[in-house]
């Protein structure tokens, strides 16, 4: 997958808000949202340890969910 899993939105900024506005906010989406279905014979992690640490059996469905700082720069 070459597309980014980070999405952005622009919240309403009230003229009466006393706090400085956050103009653009971001959130991370899981990779499975962009797969219409799970293809047959999808590659699996080679060891159970890798799968357990990744939280999924398939590398194509793994997303490290970068911290907010990393997402804002994109």
From TrEMBL:
Alphabetized Pfam families for the sequence: CotJA
InterPro entries: Spore_coat_CotJA
Protein name: Spore coat associated protein CotJA
Organism listed in the record: Paraliobacillus quinghaiensis
């Amino acid at each position: 997958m070459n597309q980014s899993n980070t999405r952005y939105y622009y919240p309403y900024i009230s003229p009466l808000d006393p706090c400085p506005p956050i103009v653009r906010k971001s959130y991370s989406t899981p990779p499975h949202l962009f797969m219409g279905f799970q293809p047959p014979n999808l590659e699996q992690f080679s060891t159970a340890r890798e799968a357990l640490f990744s939280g999924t059996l398939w590398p194509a469905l793994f997303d490290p969910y970068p911290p907010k700082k990393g997402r804002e720069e994109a």
